[in-house]
Amino acid sequence: PHVRRNLRVVHDERAAAFYALGHARARSGSCACVVTTSGTAVANLLPAACEADRDSIPIVFATADRPAEMRGVGADQVLERQQDLLRSTVRRAADLPPADDRVAALGDLGEVSSIAAAALREEDPGPTHMNLAFRENLAPRRGSRRGVGGARNDPGLSVNADWDNSALQGARYATWASHDDPWTSTTSVNTIDASQIMDALRPSKRGVVVVGRLAPKDVEDVSNFLEELHWPVIHADVRSGIRDVDVVVRRPNAVLEALRELKPDCVLQLGAAPAFAPATRAWLDAAFCAPNVRKVVVAPGRSRIDDDFATSVRVEAPPYMIARALYGQIFPPSKLLKPLLRAGMAADEALDIDGFSEPFIARAVTEAASRHQAGLFVSNSMPIRDCDRFGVPIRAEANRGLAGIDGVVATALGYAENHDADTTYLLIGDQAMLHDAGSLRAVADAHQRRLRIVVVDNGGGGIFSFLPLASNPEGIAADEIVSEEVFETLFGATHAVDFVRLVEAHGLTASRASSASEFERLLDDASLDVVVATPEVQRKDNVAIHRALEAPAVEAARRSMSHNLAYERFHGNGPPVVLLHGLFGSREDLRGLQAELAGRDVVMVDLAGHGASATEAGYSYDDQVDGLLALVEKLYDGPVDMVGYSLGARLALGCKLRRPSSIGRVVAVSARLVGLEGDARDARRRADKA
Hints:
By secondary structure, the chain is α/β, with parallel strands linked by helices. 36% of the residues lie in helices and 14% in strands.
């Protein structure tokens, strides 16, 4: 009776396992049990078990089997070692013999409780497996068994299937059967010592945070901690649920593409398997080339999380536990916080998505989910990447751990039916839909249809167009060149499936959108189960579309850094003059010169990385020239004179060369154009101080 309250029949074991995965993703502490028969049915559970293992999602797999004497003898529907099929993915496995007069059933109940506890263990949740042997899989509780007696060369063998229920009696069994509590309750004590993390974070001056998938129970505590930490979050995974927190950098792919020269000294990762955009991955890889950059990883489970081979500290705990332990501790704010947040705001404002493209579809679906307070599930490949780079801040879920495109519809259905929202959107590509089209039957069979599906139909596999082999870059060998025909056959995997007819054949309602306005209208049409979106641009043009959309955001991020130099202005008459200090100085060094220029309109500037512009460190000479010219244009209509020493002299000359109409006379003192090292650097420092 306890099971039947939430029973869901799915007609395919693979889809049933993915349904359970989605069901458990929807709520912290939620766990689904998948019950199957034996043989290949169990093999079909493996893909979902792999995803659950990677993302620490609790699922109990209960599989029927035959007893030991029937394994390895050629019996029908019996794998010789079925009990080991899932062993590499599960937290705990048990191979239970038939409960009869030789095996006390109460012992089996204790093992079942242990299996369930292992799935839900807070510090390391995940899938578990109970392999349940039956002497007769499909026999009634009483009556004859098939194939016994003479067929077993043992005329004395009982042909009755009667179960021995004597073990399932007594006060304890009666108490257990009357409620939902497990036979044995298991408590896991996990004491968190945060001192090691504090020792890693406190010395940092330029710390950053990356956040992978968070369980729903992590979100509030992690958000509160990050608001207090004052470190920029350079990547908040679409599955994190914290993308609207104030310290999260908007459009980080564009920002970090623009600001490659900024370098962190510590990276704190909360949650596992963050799906980085290319520029974010490259920025972190470059950072970890420095010898003293520390990386602290906090994630549940006991697996190694170190795909960049840079992890200094690995904490095996749910992120919310660490967030609570560190909340209230004092850490120095990161010098990268203000410049990165400002660059993110500029990039976000510059992002203008028009035309009916895949980025537009991702933006529109995330907006619809936010507008309707709906759930959102996203397929791997391009949909999750487009939501990450072009969507609005909203929590989504995905089978991102292993980046597979199998079982997406079934997972999304399980997620939708256990989610608080009345409706959940699924954004899925055409290839992923073809992989799991059989699960459309389960969607149609739902008692209440809570899943709305958006299929991006671009005629094949779009993500491979982003790989170098799609463009045949210069310098590759002749035998490495891939023809367009071969590429389309092997990677594009083109198809001619009519998804509207496919969906309708399963008893669902569907419509196709071929324009932006039509798509937005269909998204809000609650009578439709599926919207098939056919972008206006061809799949092969998708790469150019993505680059063109992000180019203004990258440029805006770059300009935001160079246009925020601290300065001090003294109003006066006569031609204006801008004073620029040396390599190791600040505008304070220029006060004596400003006094001698009394009566002139004077501006003293703190160059990037100096004085009040100290948080602006890390960008190039050209960016600093751009910043100075932008400041001149903001303050004056006509040309200005410039006086610079050392670095300031070089920048003044750069401004004159870049825009001679805006710069009048230039006085350049000690403007060496080569870098200084060792004794020469120390001598320059002493000269600057003098």
